[in-house]
Amino acid sequence: MKKRVLSGIRASGRLHLGNYLGAVKGMLELQNNPEYETFYMVADLHALTTPHDIDELRKNRREVVIDYLAAGLDPEKSVIFQQADSLHAELAFYLSSVVTVARLQHLPTYKEKVKQYPEHSTMALLNYPVLMSADILAYKAHAVPVGDDQIPHLEVAREIARKMNEQYGMDFPEPEQFKTTGHYVPSLTGQGKMSKSVEGSFITLTDTIETIKKRLAGVATDSGKGYIEKGLYIDQQFSRHETDAVSYSDGVSVLMDFVTLFQGNHRKEEYDTLYTSTGIRYSDLKNELADAIYKELEPLQEKRRELEEKIEYVDEVIHEGGKKARAVVEETILEVREKMGLK
Q1: Contact 288/274 with Cβ under 8 angstroms?
Q2: Fewer CB within 10 Å of terminal CB in the chain, N or C?
Q3: Residue 79 lies inside a defined structural domain of this protein
Q4: Residue 203 covered by a domain
Q5: pLDDT tens digit string along 262-297?
Q6: Are 205 and 20 in contact (CB under 8 A)?
Q7: CATH code of residue 41
């Protein structure tokens, strides 16, 4: 039997490079692997865990689907659906009976969101990891293409799977992270990961070359010259190795991450050499990097423009995907209800 995969992105606006590199590229890789059956959702229920604009949410639910299709997700190979069209919320309630409030309150992401939205510390926010667990376990998924920031939530899903298996005789797999090359994409601000909620942090998949250049121009740099920092690396056998690494400032370090992702290690190594010798001209670096990023995004943008003219097709993808997803979730919920004594 094929292994199942579940992944999704919040319906909180146009997708950015962090979404693309950290999730969508992994989705594509798994979609095209015959060993996997893939389910990809728009996480619209998760968007309710923080303050939101109703009209924007309605719009974003379809926009994310269009971004998925433009990036290469294929409804003939993957089930593409909107989370609210499934029964994930019902399953989340059953799963919540095996996880404590204290466990959820100690998650770093919950603490961060409470600080960010002190007037919006709701049960929906607290239960975010339980709903995410339901998203995954509803399909008995084995792999989840998520960024490193979601690892604590993935561990909650693994714990819930174990407890449901032990207490009620379920057969939930313990889901594993599927890592992509860009499983962690830094913010352009130099602080944390790229996020739609932080202005100046992101590059969207629909940005023009001019906009990309403008966004990169705002990344903080230094004089263009630096030094090699001596370090110590201890391998798995606890052997000690001396290492040399170029010491970049926060902003330049972000630029180098993007150089590696879009231009390759060889270009990064060339900049390392320049940084410790004649120096880097950041205006040239940023323009070259912007061109490399836009070169990858241009085919997606062309496909997106075509899809925007085919809204009936997009709605049909959503409708059919919802039916397929719901059929699978109904089977899981019937099994859970029976094992928990509700049938």
Answers
A1: no
A2: N
A3: yes
A4: no
A5: 999 999 999 989 988 899 999 999 999 999 999 999
A6: yes
A7: 3.40.50.620
